[in-house]
Amino acid sequence: MKLLLKFFYAVICGAILTSCGIKEATEHHNTSNTVEVLTLGVFHFNFPNLDVVKTEEKDQIDVLLPEYQKEIELIVEKLSVFKPTVIVIEVEPDYQDVIDSLYNQYLLNNHQLKRGEHQQIGFRIAKKMGLTKLYCVDEFGLGSYYPHIINIFNNEESEEYAALIKAFEDDSNSPLKFHNERIFKKEGILAELIQLNDEENIKKDLGNYLLDIFKHETVPYDFTGVDLQIGRWFGRNLKIFRNIQRIETTPSDRILVIFGSAHLNILNYLFECSPEYTLLRANDFLK
C-alpha cells in the first residue's frame, strides 16, 4: 500500500513540476526505438454530460451542422499529417465488436457518422489512413475502486455515503477549480481543441483532482478521498495506458489517442516518461 501511494504521489507531483522533454511534432522521421504518440484532448461532441463538468443544452452545438462538419474536415486534414497507423478511442473494450461493426459499415458507405468524436474524427482519419480498425481502450466502473470505497457507494443510507456525496458537491463548486471557458460556440471547434490541448491548461486541470473530494476523510487522518481518486482517476488512467501498451506495435507505428481532454493530465505524463513512447503535441498540428 505504501509503495502504491508513493507511486501516485510521484505521478501527481511529477506531472505538475517536471517535464521529461518531448520531440517536436514537425519531425516525422522517428530515429529512436520508440513509438510516436499524438494525444488529442477533446470535448465530447455528443454532450452526454456524464462528466463532472456539464454543458447546458443552450450552450451546446450540433456538430452535424454544415459549418461544423466543414471545420471537422479541416481538423481531420491537420491531424492526418501525423499519419497514424493506430487510433485509440475513449470506448471500453467490451464494445470493440460494436465499434468494429460500425466502422466496417462506414468503410462500405453504409453508416452515417454519429455525433461522437470517435466517429467524427476517429473514423474519418482511420479511413483516410486505410486502417482496418480503431482500438477501444477506456476503463471505467466500480471495478477500479478499493473494496471499502465500493462499500460506501453500495450503502446509500449510511452517513459515510451522505458525507461523500456532500464532498463531491463541494468539490464541484470549489472556487479553486480550474475551468476553461467554452469557446466552441463563438470561435469554433478548432479553437476549442487548441485551448483544451494547451500544455498549461492540461497541467492546471490535474489540480482539479486534488481538491475537496481528494481531502475527504471518513475519520480523521484516513485516506478515503485519496483512495476514491486513485480508483476514479489515477488508477483509471493507468489502466487506459496499460490497454494502449497491449496493442502490438513497432517503432514504425504512430498512435493517435483521441480522449476527453481531462485524461491528458495523466496520460501525457505517462507517455512522456515511458521509454517505449515519444509524445507529440496536438497543437503542433492544429495551429
What spatial form do the alpha-carbon principal axes imply?
Answer: globular
Sheet with the most strands, sense and barrel status: 5 strands, parallel
Q: Please report which band the strand proportion falls in: under 5%, 5-15%, 15-25%, 25-35%, 35-45% or over 45%.
A: 5-15%
Secondary-structure element order, N to C: HEHEHHEHHHHHHEHEH
**What structural category arises from helix and sheet content?**
alpha/beta
Kindly, what is the distance between the CA atoms of the first and last residues, rounded to a whole number of angstroms?
43 Å
Please tell me the overall pLDDT: 89
Q: What count of structural domains?
A: 1
Percent of residues in helices comes to 40-55%
Number of helices: 12
Order of the strands making up the biggest sheet: 3-2-4-1-5
From the alpha carbons, calculate the radius of gyration and give it in angstroms.
19 Å
Low-confidence stretches: 1-28
Tell me how many strands there are: 5
Summarize the structure.
This protein has helices at residues 2-17, 66-80, 96-107, 117-128, 147-153, 159-172, 184-187, 189-196, 199-207, 224-245, 264-273, 283-286; strands at residues 35-42, 86-89, 135-136, 254-260, 277-281. The chain is of the alpha/beta class and 287 residues long.
Summarize the SSE layout with pairings:
Blueprint: H1 2-17, E1 35-42, H2 66-80, E2 86-89, H3 96-107, H4 117-128, E3 135-136, H5 147-153, H6 159-172, H7 184-187, H8 189-196, H9 199-207, H10 224-245, E4 254-260, H11 264-273, E5 277-281, H12 283-286
Parallel strand pairs: 1-4, 1-5, 2-3, 2-4
